[in-house]
């Protein structure tokens, strides 16, 4: 039997501010990295047996 999922922690103060800033200004991804991620995604998607995409 599966274990229950723990509650998500709530952020306060400085941690909450840092998290909000990271969400508003994500790090840019290079063109090469983006292409590699897309290639890997398509590779796995094409080999998936029961995909419902």
Folded structure, characterized:
This protein is mainly alpha-helical and 53 residues long. Helix content is 55%, strand content 0%. The protein has helices at residues 13-24, 31-47. 0% of the residues are buried.
The SS-based structural class is mainly alpha
pLDDT average, as an integer? 89
Number of strands: 0
What general form does the structure show? flat
Radius of gyration: 18 Å
Topology pattern, helix = H, strand = E: HH
What is the terminal-to-terminal distance?
29 Å
Helix and strand topology:
Layout: H1 13-24, H2 31-47
Summarize the structure.
By secondary structure, this protein is mainly alpha-helical. The chain has two helices and no strands.
Give the tags:
53 residues; mainly alpha; 2 helices; 55% helix; flat
């Amino acid at each position: 039997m599966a274990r229950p999922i723990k509650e998500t922690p709530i952020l306060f103060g400085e941690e909450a501010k840092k998290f909000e800033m990271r969400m508003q200004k994500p790090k840019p991804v290079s063109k090469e990295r983006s292409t590699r991620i897309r290639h890997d995604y398509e590779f796995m998607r094409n080999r998936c047996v029961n995909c419902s995409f």
